[in-house]
Write a structure and sequence with these properties.
Blueprint lengths: L2 E7 L6 H14 L3 E6 L2 H4 L2 H4 L2 E4 L2 E4 H7 L4 H14 L2 E6 L2 H7 L6 E4 L7 H9 L3 E5 L5 H11 L3 E7 L14 H8 L4 E6 L5 H5 L7 E5 L17 H18 L11 H7 L3
Parallel strand pairs: 1-2, 1-10, 2-5, 6-7, 7-8, 8-9, 9-10
Antiparallel strand pairs: 3-4
Helix pairs in contact: 1-5
Length: 274
């Protein structure tokens, strides 16, 4: 079975009511997990950006203050943890810095994600490996050398490798779906999946036919909402259709054998003359 991960990320805009509605949607649509991103903004925001002004729903504020509006504290993550447990849906997060990786250790989640943007952060990779969680890792914006260097650190804890293009949203000519098959050939001991940044469901659903065992896709309540990731996300109706298409494509993929199905026999008897 293909695991489906609904990437909430920062599309909640710092609003716990949005988070809970998105968790409800993911559960009701049939996703297996919801995913978040965790940052220490004082660490990850470059110094030359911190005091730049940005127009936001909270007014024209400093960029560092805008980024902090999107982050949840310990109590809020405990609320997320409890809410997901009550809804019987798993959750995970991708830490973007060492402090955030340490923060996430307190939660008993099965997985932790190495984000494409963090794949070359050696200290972060070492910290993630210390946690007793299975690792999901994406390939976005990374050369093979960079990816293999990361795998040399965390590879023994990795369960899923996700083919990924880190453009938001990704154009069709950037999807490179056959890359899934290359990963399956070259990293045979791992499960290979697909992380989509397309605003539609075509490529995410099609990844099943290339052998994807996990599909991660950004979700939103409304693509018109404020936020940098909204345009690369799918809305509720797209979520429902994606789950249906993935299940149908799993059935339709078959095993490739030369088969005459029992349902064909009466057609064969009726139509063939010889």
């Amino acid at each position: 079975m293909v695991k489906l991960v609904a990437e909430i990320g920062i599309n909640h805009n710092g609003d716990m009511a949005n988070v809970q509605e998105m968790i409800d949607l993911a559960k009701d649509c049939g996703f297996d997990m919801v995913k978040f991103q965790k940052r220490n903004c004082d660490v990850i925001v470059p110094e030359d950006k911190k005091n730049r002004m940005k127009e936001t729903p909270w007014g024209n504020i400093k960029y560092i203050d805008y980024k902090k509006k999107l982050e949840f504290c310990e109590d809020e993550y405990k609320t997320i943890d409890e809410y997901c447990q009550a809804k019987r849906i798993d959750w995970l997060a991708s830490p973007w810095d060492v402090d955030s990786a340490r923060f996430l250790k307190q939660f008993d989640t099965e997985y932790i994600k190495v984000a494409s943007a963090c794949l070359t952060d050696i200290e972060l990779l070492k910290e993630i490996k210390k946690d007793n969680k299975k690792i999901i890792i994406s390939t976005g914006m990374s050369s093979k050398e960079e990816f293999d260097n990361a795998m040399a650190i965390v590879g023994d804890r990795v369960e899923y490798i996700l083919a990924c293009t880190s453009t938001y949203p990704s154009a069709p000519e950037e999807m490179n779906m056959k890359f899934i098959q290359r990963l399956k050939r070259e990293y045979v001991q791992y499960k290979i999946g697909f992380s989509s940044h397309s605003p539609g469901i075509l490529f995410a659903a099609s990844s099943v036919l290339y052998g994807a065992k996990m599909i991660e896709i950004h979700i939103t309540l409304d693509r018109a909402m404020f936020g940098s990731d909204q345009s690369a996300s799918i809305e509720p109706e797209g979520m429902r259709r994606l789950v249906k298409y993935v299940k149908d494509l799993e059935k339709a993929k078959g095993d490739g054998s030369w088969t005459v199905f029992p349902s064909e026999e009466p057609v064969k008897f009726s139509l063939r003359r010889f």
